[in-house]
Amino acid sequence: MNLSFNQESCTGCGACVKYCPGHVLEMGPEGIPYERYPDDCWYCGVCQVECPQDCITLLFPYLIR
Amino acid sequence: MKDPEVMEADFLIVGGGPAGCMAAIRAKELAPEMNVVVVEKAEISRSGAAGRGMDALNNVVVPGISTVEEYLEALEIVTDGVFDPTISRVIGERSFGILKRLETWGVQFPRGEDGNYIVNQFHPKGRFLVEMRGELKKILAREVKRAGATVVNRHTALDLLKDGERVAGAIGLDLTTGEFKVFIAPAVLLCTGGAARIGLPNTGYLHGTFDCPWCNGESWRMGYEAGASLTGFEYTARSSMTRDFNGAGQSTFIRHGAWLINGLGERFMERYDPERMERAPAGIRARAIIEEEKAGRGPVAFVFSHLDPGTIELIESAVFDVERPTMRDYFRNKGIDIRKDPVEVVMTEVYLCGGHGLAGLVADAWGETEVPGLFAAGDSLANPYGFLTGAMCMGEAAAERVVQKDYPSPTSPDTASKLKRLEEVRLRHDRGRLGVSLRDFEYKFRRLVNDYVAPPKSARKLQRFLDETEGMVAEQEDVPARGPHELMKAFEAKAGLFCARMAARASLFRTESRFGLYHERVDYPEKDDENWKTRVIIRAGMEGPVVEKEKK
């Protein structure tokens, strides 16, 4: 996984899902986004800057950490 | 199977990047009654290579600082003399106008202490790079909507429609529902970017690429199959990139005066291009880095410690606040402070790009290809090192031509046969007879690109690639891909394999070495201006691709 969503501050507004240029994210059944296609992430940071609650943290994968 | 939705347009723009946005805005401005439709794979305000941000316009002819002639002289050096000056001249002439337009929309171009734009040198010769700040892509998207163009987000184009010799629209895939959608239009602009997923990055991550991985040469495959020509595919570019950090950003370092050093602390560009040093053409810089590594003098890194604090701040604001904010996180994660620490660089995988290299669709001064009504712009157009500015200039030019020419509406587009074919392709992917994952399929041909197409090249290796991948072309539609996301990726992989094979063909044809590292042929080590200072063109013939020198 490349991203961590702060479950407490996420309001489930879906902005990250809407703007992700790679179709990586989807809304989960709990109303919290999750990475449906983690391999397709480019670490562009669009989800991070679009999140109005600032609740997304980028986790760099092990191979490049 | 129900009939797909049909949308009619006067001007269909495939790709909502800077080129597509500018085309839509310009068309609506000149012809408000025109029905302009932009098909965008993601969401237009954040899509593509420029989606997160861009920190400069690399090539603007600012009055009083440079001239169009100087711009063309710089390109002559950068492209090793292999470029069509017609399009580059248009870009030079329009570039300052684009800057002024962006400024009126709220894109910021910071001024120096003298009150003038901050213009830096990035090209080997001349100053054309203007610092830029602000949310460019969001602003462009806002202007597209304000102009009244229709934006169809989350759709990817899979094939073009023809009406006889003319273009007649496109068939798209709705990435939410998985339905096909038909777009009928007498004029189509292809601007879906370059092709990022050609070679395999050294990290092994398929999407860990230098260029935007969601752009993979779809315009080139579709344009070629519709009858347009390609050029520059032997320019198999590899850039230097911050180690393990996907994406561009090093032009920012270079233009602000960062030095490249090797593991011994030597400013090694002195050995390869003492006059231009770090600002040498990309292919020469790339070869220098590889030579240093090969000689055991690595790792290579950028250093900044000789720069004054103001310049360091400018670099950080450009990269961290605008172009690539995740680089801030990455540096923090690695404990890198550019005031004192070197930033290690590696060479990227092979990629193909119109605005960042030489590859692309061949077109006239308006961006129109040989197929009437079919245009190209941005990284999909062969506009050598036109970068972001070139994308917007040529989007604007294409729109002006479309408005001026008033193309007749298609009367008998080949919609039925194209849809039937796409349904068959979808069914084959759904059955997935090949039984290997899409990921393995893509990994395989990209690994072969590293082995056989990446420079240094030889006829033996290039031919081997074509032989090895021929079977993959035949079976690519049997790779399992179910649902819209996977089908999109299957088409991206298909375009990527198409581009890689075209790169091998063009590289095989150019029997000389040119472009520094990018077209280094060990079996033809010399540069041969007499025979080869010309573009290599690939077009579809009756029995497959025809590769030839450009006819003057």
How would you describe this protein?
The complex is a heterodimer of chains A (65) and B (552). By secondary structure, chain A is α+β, with helices and mostly antiparallel strands. Chain A has a single domain (3-60), classed as Alpha-Beta Plaits. Helix content of chain A is 15%, strand content 18%. Chain A has 2 helices and 4 strands. Chain A has helices at residues 15-19, 46-50, and strands spanning 3-5, 25-27, 33-35, 56-58. Chain A starts with a strand and ends in a 7-residue tail after the last strand. The model of chain A has no long low-confidence stretch (mean pLDDT 91). By secondary structure, chain B is α/β, with parallel strands linked by helices. Among the domains of chain B are: 240-347, Flavocytochrome C3, Chain A, domain 1 (Alpha-Beta Complex); 415-540, Fumarate reductase/succinate dehydrogenase flavoprotein-like, C-terminal domain (Methane Monooxygenase Hydroxylase, Chain G, domain 1). Chain B contains 16 helices and 20 strands. In chain B, the strands form 5 sheets. Chain B has a 5-stranded parallel β-sheet, with helices on one face. In chain B, strand 2 (11-14), helix 1 (18-30) and strand 3 (36-39) form a beta-alpha-beta unit. In chain B, helix 2 (68-78) crosses helix 3 (85-104), helix 5 (218-225) crosses helix 15 and helix 14 (459-475) runs antiparallel to helix 15 (483-509). The model of chain B has no long low-confidence stretch (mean pLDDT 95). Classes of the chains: A alpha+beta (65), B alpha/beta (552). At the A-B interface, helix 2 of A face helix 10 and helix 15 of B.
